[in-house]
Amino acid sequence: MLEKQRKASAFSEASNIYLNRFVPRHDDELELEVDDPLLVEVQGDDYWYEGYNMRTGAHGIFPAYYAIEVNKGTECYKVKSSEWMDRYRLKFLGSVQVPYHKGNDVLCAAMQKIANNRRMTVKFNPPSFCVLEISVKGIKLAVQEDYYACDRSNECSHFFQLKNVSFCGYHPKNSKYFGFITKHPADQRFACHVFVSENSTKPLAESVGKAFQLYYKEFVEFSCPTEDIYLE
């Protein structure tokens, strides 16, 4: 009973709740479990936050994508989550297997590897146009050789359920490059999918963050902060 009261008190003071488990890889990173209450102090432009884990009292930095604001009013989501979708036009550079399911260093290494491979093939195999559709259901990737063609018969589509998207972000030194990491539905394998845009992909990263917020509100539906909630 005392533990529940302490946990409820932490939630009442928290600014955010974390939706995923985060295992630190560096000394300045903060270890987090699913449903941990957070007090965010600094919101970095690189999509990393700095603050306290209200459950443990520890301080550090952590990825912002799963840190959901708890005091945000429901008026921000007047549109039903099932009806909301954002669409972005990009160029698909490719996918590569990665050793870990999250982290800016993992993302940047994958971008660098794909970019290096692309330099050797860009003249005879240029990047394909694609459309990314972001919704509460997941991320749909529709690739087509000619974006302006009326015939869509040669379009290739892939769909990634949101629960299998473990990380996303843009390159910290060039925001025109965007990538997201997915986990295999059955195996313990991860892949990073990399794109480039004519403009900054920061709005795209924000759309993925919004999708997780809506997913959490619609499907996890936490109403009592003392309940144990897990996405898997």
From TrEMBL:
Instruction: Spell out the InterPro entries in the cross-references.
Output: JIP1_scaffold, JIP1_SH3, PH-like_dom_sf, PTB/PI_dom, SH3-like_dom_sf, SH3_domain
Where the record annotates domain PID, the positions are 88-221
Principal location: cytoplasm
Q: Which SUPFAM superfamilies match?
A: PH domain-like, SH3-domain
Where is each SH3 domain found? 3-72
Q: Keyword check for Phosphoprotein, yes or no.
A: yes
Q: Does the keyword Cytoplasm apply?
A: yes
Tell me the compartments it is located in: Cytoplasm
Q: What SMART domains does its record include?
A: PTB, SH3
Query: Which biological processes are named by the entry's GO terms?
Result: JNK cascade; regulation of JNK cascade
Highest taxon listed in the record's lineage = Eukaryota
**Molecular function via GO:** JUN kinase binding; kinase activity; MAP-kinase scaffold activity
Any one annotated GO CC term:
cytoplasm
Fetch the PROSITE patterns from UniProt.
PID, SH3
Q: Which UniProt keywords apply?
A: Cytoplasm, Kinase, Phosphoprotein, SH3 domain, Transferase
Database matches in PANTHER family: C-JUN-AMINO-TERMINAL KINASE-INTERACTING PROTEIN 1 (PTHR47437:SF3), JNK-INTERACTING PROTEIN 1-LIKE PROTEIN (PTHR47437)
Family statement: Belongs to the JIP scaffold family.
The protein's name:
C-Jun-amino-terminal kinase-interacting protein 1
Species whose genome carries this gene: Crenichthys baileyi
Q: What is the lineage of its organism?
A: Eukaryota, Metazoa, Chordata, Craniata, Vertebrata
The encoding gene: MAPK8IP1
